[in-house]
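Review form for a predicted model. The reviewer records the input and the model, then writes brief findings.
Reviewer: anonymous (R2)
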Amino acid sequence: MMTRREFMSLLAAASVASLGSRRAFGRTPDFSSLYEIEKFGDVHFMHFTDSHAQLVPIYFREPSVNIGIGSAKNQTPHMVGEKFLSKYGLKPGTAAAHAFTCLDFEAAAKRYGKVGGFAHLSTLVKRVRDSRPGALLLDGGDTWQGSATALWTKGQDMVDACKLLGVDVMTGHWEFTYGAERVQELVSGSLSGSTSFVAQNVTTSDFGDPVFEPFVLREMNGIPVAIIGQAFPYTPVANPSYLIPDWTFGIQEQNLQTTIDAARSQGAQVVVLLSHNGMDVDLKLASRVTGLDAILGGHTHDGMPEPVLVSNAGGKTLVTNAGSNGKFLGVLDFKVSGGKATDWKYTLLPVFSDALPADKEMQALIDSVRAPYLEKLNEPLAVAGEALYRRGNFNGTFDQLILDALLDVKDAEISFSPGFRWGTSILSGDTIRMEHVMDQTAITYPYSTLTEMKGSMVKTILEDVADNLFNSDPYYQQGGDMVRVGGMDYAIDPNAASGSRIQEMTLKGKPIEPEKLYKVAGWAPVASGASGEPIWDVVAGWLKSQGNLKPRELKQPKLIGITENDGLA
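Model under review:
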């Protein structure tokens, strides 16, 4: 017999499936009731994450490759395309299919329009708040980075937008790449009195003192609730450690358990973790700590229509992930009885910009933020000959442009580009503007480099990143994608042991020699003391020289041992 909780989960999926109506998502219909979701329970959380500073509506293509190995094979979140639709009972060719998968991306994007935009998200947040008094808005991080204006204002544009949006609690990751001083300045200044920045796993490296509040205790409709923060555990590894030299991170499992227990002892009847671990890490963490009602997760940009219910020694914990780029708003409702959560409902709402009128106050703020930079943002560079995107385990068409630019401009034999999961998409025939390039490259350490590197070192780099992506233990995964590779070809066996995944490395048909030196171009070095032309200047100059682009060969590795995997569209 289906339990109440299972039934509510099914209803959540059905609410997403209903978004497939052509009547609802035509270009000019009445959208007035589209986002009205029935109030449920006593405690309400709204959650968005990984917006990557995208204030205006964008196109965003979901991945066609998101491979799971070992116990993660064919399991959430490692499902794409039609396999994803089948898992959640969604119909092909619908708005929901477009929101959650890459299927028929260009045609669907033209049909349903852009997604996200803070003015449209603001309208949705206000609607949900109207139906759910006391609801808290949680920001999972990666909010202050990812656009030109965020970089040029050192995150101030996003802080101001989030304050106006009404963010109550947030945690972080890419926020830390502005440096410890700037983060503290914004947290203790602009955000003070409006938004709590929580992170139980960030401490000082000398005495282990907490840098931020571990959690906040709030009362909602007479019920005490706790929100615990979990910043990205591998920040000093994935990003330059010199930007935060005096802070330590990590998963901090035992400290988290202590924090949960402290929140419960202070009367919290509902306890949630606002996490930037990545979904695979959250799934493992949920099985090992007790006392969490839910993990509202981010970092890996997985838009999940339903939570995963994870069993642990103390009961069960819901694990969610709410996508990226302002494209989704998660709504989690709890019914509380006898001092604990007894039932729940979750709905992940796609933010279709055409379906939600822009909030006037937020739009005015966005316009004022962008006004000084419009000329630079709108600078035309080239015309896209195909849809340009970033997401996918191994490469994306916009990544390929970056790789090709590095090869040409740096006169390199091999090029590397980080497997960042942020970056917006462009439709074929559209003008590539400077803003689009900045959407892929806007970081505080943008230096492009050219290095002579032995073939053995090339392999070592690829092996290290592959172990990050395909380690069977989620606690050793950092949540990005494989480094993008230009110039050379290789094969990869994700199921192989560490150090043995990369095979068949060739350059122009000849094997890469371990002791031979190769000219390798790259960008975004994490070591201190790096210098070089900013990557956006390299790419912009190269694009201007190209004019009207033709579709380019997408360099993808040969996959070994990957069969019947739901992570391949």
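Findings: Residues 1-31 have pLDDT under 50 and may be disordered.
Further findings: Residues 67 and 567 are 4 Å apart (CA to CA).
Recommendation: see findings above.
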